[in-house]
Design a protein that fits this description.
alpha/beta, 17 helices, Rossmann fold, seven-stranded mixed β-sheet, 366 residues
Length: 366
């Protein structure tokens, strides 16, 4: 791929391949033009805001990645190990083995309770949806199909488990650096009036093959219960039967990824694969290939651009990292082929090969 004279934001390096970039006359993107540094409260304020009463516990949603493990450890420091219960959503085959090890290690070292919520049907649904997506790739539907079951799993499903234990307050470690609005914008574009829910339903209509078992029910449930969802008001999720109070850890703690990674490695023996960001779920590898293969960028472009705005990374460093990441994905056929075989999906290799061959961003190398 030729990066010479490629259109991009002068301030954060956001790529011009992003259709909604909207550079102004000074070469600044819409995100840089509207950027206001997030106001971070102190962790002492979190204690006041959570306001745990006598005998009450706080639920923390964890994945095995460095951010959630770090959050878990800090919450144990703040509230005490007996006040914190960690909840994780486990999808056999799709959850990375190292992520599970990280959670179990933290569980032992922090002496804080860990509840593992398992979904046995996840891989079967993923396999079927992947096979459908490979035949008719659509960037707006990548997360909708490949993450089916998970978004509900890491929110409402975990809250319900906590409810059984009398837990009504939960905290998430999802970072403000991870926002990638293009996924929502792609769905909005499928609606003439820019309505994301209508766009979502229009996207489903393109795939009649999705109507198997409870697949459509699960996909629609995900759209409803995604974090910060349409039923969320004032950071509280309500209905007649239940009430949850949700908190974001990044409202109270600065996000400094290098420091976080050093801390969890040294204190909790944290491990990761070659990719340290979002490595805990194997589906991320597939999403990267689809997004890059169709759009020419991934969620990582948005994270690095955000880190530049926050002064956590220089323009030069972000450019080098994006080039390296793009090159690896561009030439990833052999790696993905091996992953398909490891997961027992050899019969989908012809469709994978065709996706690489027809993509203007990927390279097929036999």
């Amino acid at each position: 791929m030729n990066y010479v004279n490629e259109k991009k934001c002068n301030c954060c390096n956001m790529t011009g391949r992003y259709d909604y970039l909207e550079l102004n006359s000074d070469g600044k993107c819409k995100f840089c033009n509207s950027f206001v540094k997030k106001d971070i409260k102190k962790l002492e304020q979190l204690i006041k805001d959570v306001n745990l009463e006598e005998g009450e516990k706080l639920g923390v949603t964890v994945s095995g990645g460095k951010d959630s493990i770090y959050m878990w450890s800090k919450l144990v420091e703040l509230f005490g190990k007996d006040k914190i219960v960690a909840f994780t959503f486990y999808r056999p085959i799709l959850t990375h083995k190292l992520a599970v090890e990280n959670l179990k290690n933290a569980n032992q070292l922090l002496e804080s309770e860990l509840v593992i919520v398992k979904e046995d049907d996840a891989f079967k649904r993923f396999y079927n949806n992947l096979s459908i997506l490979l035949k008719k790739p659509d960037p707006a539907m990548v997360r909708v199909l490949l993450c089916s079951g998970c978004r509900y799993g890491i929110t409402e499903r975990l809250y319900l488990e906590g409810k059984k234990m009398g837990i009504n307050k939960f905290i998430s470690g999802a970072s403000y650096m991870e926002l990638a609005p293009f996924k929502e914008e792609l769905l909005e574009a499928k609606s003439e009036k820019g309505d994301i829910n209508e766009g979502f339903e229009n996207g489903l209509k393109l795939y009649p093959e999705l109507d198997f078992d409870d697949n459509l029910f699960v996909i629609r449930r995900d759209q409803k219960y995604k974090y910060k969802n349409n039923d969320t008001l004032g950071n509280n999720l309500h209905d007649i039967r239940k009430k949850y109070q949700l908190f974001d850890f990044d409202d109270y703690s600065e996000y400094i990824p290098d420091q976080i990674e050093r801390t969890v490695k040294q204190q909790l023996g944290w491990q990761c694969s070659e990719r340290s960001w979002h490595f805990d779920c194997l589906v991320e590898e597939f999403k990267d290939v689809f997004y890059f293969g169709i759009l020419g960028y991934t969620e990582l472009d948005f994270k690095y651009a955000s880190m530049v705005r926050y002064g956590l990374m220089s323009l030069e460093e972000s450019e080098e990292k994006i080039k390296k990441s793009n090159y690896e994905i561009q030439h990833s056929f052999s790696k993905m082929k091996n992953l398909f075989c490891e997961l027992g999906m050899e019969e989908l290799l012809d469709d994978l090969k065709n996706f690489y061959i027809t993509s203007k961003y990927l390279v097929w190398e036999n």
